[in-house]
Structure formats: structure tokens, C-alpha cells
Amino acid sequence: MLDEFPGKVRLVVKDFPLRFHEGAEPAALAARCAAEHGRYWEYRELLFVAQPAFAQSDLLLYAARLGLPRDAFRACLDGGRYRAQVRRDVKEGRAAGVSGTPTVFINGLRLVGVYPLEMIREAVQDALDDATGKRP
């Protein structure tokens, strides 16, 4: 969508680790630690492929696969540097009615679950049309 609508849409990613998945919060924290080294998206992809293997040893292994500095990554993870931010994301999500993942918001329209790309594209176009007054 970012490529299809350059300068018209933005992507905001929030963490929403599910309570019943005990490894979800450490995985979210690890992804944020990877972001410190510019590798958030690559790390996130490894998490999706590897789930539910989110023990600390697994999270460190994924970081090593991406060539992240072991000591810095471990210090970030062990120190819980991003715990408050992740928990703030969860609080915001709950306030917005999020109860599971994935949940996508397009100008207030909440889409829960996995949707075909075409449906997302249409929702984005509808939102842009509403914003520019192109819809009746």
C-alpha cells in the first residue's frame, strides 16, 4: 500500500502480544531490540516463521542469524528496555477494541483477521476518497 499510494498513507505498527502466548511479549521486545540495529522487519519475519519457538535462547539465535551484535541485543532483551512501550501499545489496542491479531485500522475502520490484499486496497482507496471528497 505504501508503494501504491506514495505520500498518501502511512504504516503504524503496534505490538499486541496475546496474554495466552507466554512467548509473545518477549518476542515483541526482541523485535524492538532488533529495530535498534535497523533489522526490525527481518527479525519480525523470522518470528513468524519460527513461532511458537520464543524462548530466550531462540530469540538470541534469531538475532545471531541476522548478524546482530550479541551483547548489545542480549542487554536490550534482558533489560526489558521496551517493556513499557509494548505494554502501552497493548493498552491503546484494548482501548481501540483490539482483541486479537492481526487487527488493521484504516481511518477508523477496524479489520480483524487476515484479509485479501484487494480488500485492503479497496478500504484504503475508500478512505482516501472520503478524505478528498471524491465519494458522494
Query: What is the residue-averaged pLDDT?
Result: 93
Which residue ranges are poorly predicted, with pLDDT under 50 across at least 5 consecutive positions? none
Structural class: mainly alpha
Largest sheet: 2 strands, antiparallel
Terminal-residue CA separation? 24 Å
Count of DSSP-assigned helices:
6
Number of structural units classed as domains: 2
N-to-C SSE string, H for helix and E for strand? HHHHHEEH
* β-sheet strand percentage: 5-15%
Helix content: 40-55%
Largest sheet strand order: 1-2
Count of beta strands: 2
Shape: elongated
Radius of gyration: 17 Å
Q: What do these coordinates show?
A:
- With 136 residues, this protein is mostly helical.
- The chain has two domains: 13-98, no CATH class; 102-136, no CATH class.
- 53% of the residues lie in helices and 6% in strands.
- It is built from six helices and two strands.
- Helix 1 packs antiparallel against helix 2 (40-50) and helix 1 (24-35) packs parallel to helix 3 (56-65).
- The relative contact order is 0.14.
Features:
136 residues, mainly alpha, 2 domains, two-stranded antiparallel ribbon, 6% strand, elongated
Task: Write the topology of this structure.
Blueprint: H1 24-35, H2 40-50, H3 56-65, H4 70-79, H5 83-95, E1 103-106, E2 109-112, H6 117-132
Antiparallel strand pairs: 1-2
Helix pairs in contact: 1-2, 1-3
Summarize the structure.
The chain is mostly helical.
